[in-house]
Design goal:
With 301 residues, this protein is mainly beta. The protein is built from 3 helices and 23 strands. Strand 17 and strand 18 form a beta hairpin. The protein binds zinc ion (ZN). Zinc ion binds next to loops.
């Protein structure tokens, strides 16, 4: 690819790689080696209480306070007399609402559903609302399926779901948190919905591979040769990325089961592909080879 003017190219890259519709919102979790060690080998302790034998732990994604003006158009639902009021859209994914101020002052009873601000029925619209919320620190990146690209497919060892992620140095919130990612770090694709069926064992292995859960579907176990279904909210829930059973519910301890859920998928950085090239000290986008976290070495032990 040739650019008409090499000084324009870097800024153009950043703008393109932050464009809505072309790119996805991503969160980054830095990996750290766990200090545990198996005395019989140089690897991690398979019974380590901190890392579970995986050998690494990952930093939590910090939550950041965002404040923005949201345009709320006149609502069709409002005109039809439905229960939900007018809606507008916030720009960051996975937000938690703190405060909303409308033309009549502070609004009570508003909520965030995905990216949508849902106001109580009767709220003025069209109008501008000031929305204060917190959301995981996030940037944007362009993800390309490796299977779609012949160049990568010819390399071999490609797995279903492998991605090449291109990350600009800066975004609307400043530095992109994923730009200086390293191998083993995790990348969460906050806009995606990944359907997961994961093998668990009650009381033994109950940590979700993809902890950014959008929806818990069900759990299934074989009890006396019959498949039994368990329902979220009734039989179990997920807390801190782990299945928690209600008292007296669920299969017996050490029973294997399958957990079905939908989550924003977690990937890990398999390889840092570096920058395509360097222009006069300008930080160009970087590229990373990503693999679904299901395949992370040590998982499934
Ligand atoms: Zn450990």
């Amino acid at each position: 690819m040739r650019f008409p003017h090499h000084r324009i190219a870097p800024a153009w890259f950043d703008a393109l790689l932050n464009a809505e519709g072309l790119t996805y919102r991503i969160a980054h979790r830095r990996a750290h080696l766990c200090p545990c060690q198996d005395p019989r080998s140089s690897g991690p302790d398979p019974h380590c209480p901190r890392c579970g034998g995986v050998g690494y732990t990952w930093e939590d994604v910090p939550y950041v306070r965002y404040e923005e003006e949201v345009q709320v158009p006149a609502s069709r639902e409002e005109a039809e007399g439905r229960m939900s009021g007018p809606t507008g859209r916030v720009s960051r994914a996975w937000g938690r609402l703190l405060e909303v101020v409308g033309p009549l002052g502070p609004v009570t009873g508003a909520r965030l559903e995905e990216d949508y601000l849902v106001l109580p029925p009767g709220s003025p619209a069209p109008a501008t609302y000031r929305v204060i919320y917190e959301a995981p620190l996030q940037g944007r990146g362009h993800a390309q399926s490796v299977r779609m690209s012949r160049k990568w497919a010819e390399r071999g060892e490609v797995q279903v779901g492998d991605l090449v992620l291109t990350v600009p140095r800066r975004g609307p919130d400043g530095d992109n948190p994923a730009w200086d990612a390293l191998p083993h770090d995790q990348i969460v694709l906050l806009d995606h919905a990944h359907r997961v069926e994961q093998r668990m064992v009650r009381g033994v292995k109950e940590v979700l591979t993809h902890p950014w859960v959008r929806e818990l579907l069900r759990a299934r176990a074989l009890v006396g040769g019959q498949e039994v279904l368990y329902l979220p909210g009734e039989d179990f829930q997920v807390a801190d990325g782990r299945v928690v059973w209600e008292a007296g519910r669920g299969p017996a301890p050490r029973t294997p089961y399958v957990l079905e859920y939908v989550a924003a998928p977690t990937y890990y950085v398999l390889e840092d592909l570096g920058q395509r090239r360097h222009i006069e000290g300008y930080d160009l986008p970087r590229r990373f080879y990503l693999r679904l976290f299901d395949a992370y070495p040590g998982r499934g032990r």
